[in-house]
Amino acid sequence: MDVVRRELKMLSSVNFIKKKSLASLDWAFNSGFKYIGEFEDLLLSSGTLSNEEILSNFKKVGRVKLVVISGVFIKNHDSRVDLLIVGDKLKKKRIEDGVHKIEAEIGVELTYAIFETKDFIYRLNMYDKLVRDILDYPHEVVLQSKELSTQALKKA
Question: How far apart are CA 156 and CA 97, in angstroms?
Fold first, then answer.
């Protein structure tokens, strides 16, 4: 127990963690930590999560036709979503499990959007704000079927 107290005291002394309340024994990461940017860079650029590893989390979720990453994956904090998944017969629970697995690995909560292919194409053609915000701003296409080819996405 003394080891834990000593480590907590040390982490608290550099403002890495803080008590949730004065009366509480609970500790939390201090979002005002001086080196939060560098710490985030270390976690996200450590090479622990490749595009293939991202895709492997969504193998048995249905027929995935498009996977786009943005936000924390490309260090764009202004992005509305970190992950976009488009496909058919998608199993929401399995997608959520895959997202949670990625979150656990990178230590960041993800914002994601899931669309059936028809709905996505409709929204794309209607210039839906969410879809446009994802595709018009910095992003990386991890998986793309012929049906949702770059040419089709650019025409919309």
Answer: 32
How far is the C-alpha of 35 from the C-alpha of 14, rounded, in Å? 10
CATH number of 51-155: 3.30.460
The two tokens of residue 119 are 């709905």
Per-residue pLDDT tens, the chain, 156 aa: give them: 789 889 888 888 888 888 887 777 788 888 888 887 777 666 655 445 788 888 999 989 999 999 999 988 888 878 899 999 999 999 999 999 999 999 888 878 899 999 999 999 999 999 999 999 999 999 999 999 887 774 455 544
Q: At what angle do helices 117-125 and 129-136 cross, to 10 degrees?
A: 90
Q: Cβ neighbours of residue 94 under 8 Å, at least 6 residues apart?
A: 58, 60, 61, 62
- pTM over 0.85? The answer is no
Domain with CATH 3.30.460 in the chain: 51-155
Determine which helix (DSSP H) or strand (DSSP E) holds 27, and give its type and residue range.
strand 27-29
